[in-house]
């Protein structure tokens, strides 16, 4: 027990650009719509005071904490933290988009959300069709 390593975090992972690329790839693999929706949600969160309340801030804070812990464990141990951050990002993006749907631009935001959902459904069906081809 005296030689066991319980934490194993290395803060050098934050200085390696490849770690940031892997985090971005993990987010894109979780949901390709995040490539569009996450930057929109972050910019909206930072620019619009109405979006900065506890319901949006708490999931963002937990996701950032999980990303930091995942980057501190750049090997296999960090993958669980990165995977755990994804549901919190879903909650954050959904909360900000819900706030945008209650604004005066609701028709535009709703059309964009349904367009993203339709594109993601089409992308999923095309990917499913490629599975049969091997």
Notes on the structure:
The protein has helices spanning about 15-30, 35-45, 55-70, 75-100, 105-134. It has about 130 residues and is mainly α. Helix 2 packs across helix 4 (about 75-100) and helix 3 (about 55-70) runs antiparallel to helix 4. The longest helix has 28 residues, at about 105-134.
Comma- or semicolon-separated keywords:
134 residues; mainly alpha; flat
Indicate the topology.
Elements: H1 17-30, H2 34-47, H3 54-72, H4 77-101, H5 106-133
Helix pairs in contact: 2-4, 3-4
Average pLDDT, rounded to a whole number, is 87
Q: Compute the separation of the termini in Å.
A: 48 Å
- Helical residue percent band: over 70%
Helix and strand sequence: HHHHH
Q: Decide which structural class fits the backbone.
A: mainly alpha
Major β-sheet profile = none
Q: What count of helical segments does DSSP give?
A: 5
Q: Give the C-alpha Rg.
A: 18 Å
Low-pLDDT runs = none
């Amino acid at each position: 027990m005296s030689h066991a390593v319980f934490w194993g975090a290395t803060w050098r992972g934050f200085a390696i650009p490849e770690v940031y690329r892997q985090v971005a790839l993990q987010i894109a693999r979780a949901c390709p719509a995040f490539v569009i929706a996450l930057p929109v949600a972050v910019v909206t969160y930072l620019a619009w005071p109405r979006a900065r309340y506890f319901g949006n801030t708490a999931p963002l804070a937990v996701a950032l904490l999980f990303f930091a812990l995942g980057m501190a464990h750049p090997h296999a141990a960090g993958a669980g933290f990165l995977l755990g951050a994804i549901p919190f990002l879903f909650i954050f993006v959904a909360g900000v988009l819900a706030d945008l749907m209650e604004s005066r631009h609701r028709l535009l935001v709703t059309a964009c959300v349904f367009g993203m959902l339709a594109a993601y459904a089409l992308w999923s069906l095309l990917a499913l069709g490629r599975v049969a081809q091997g």
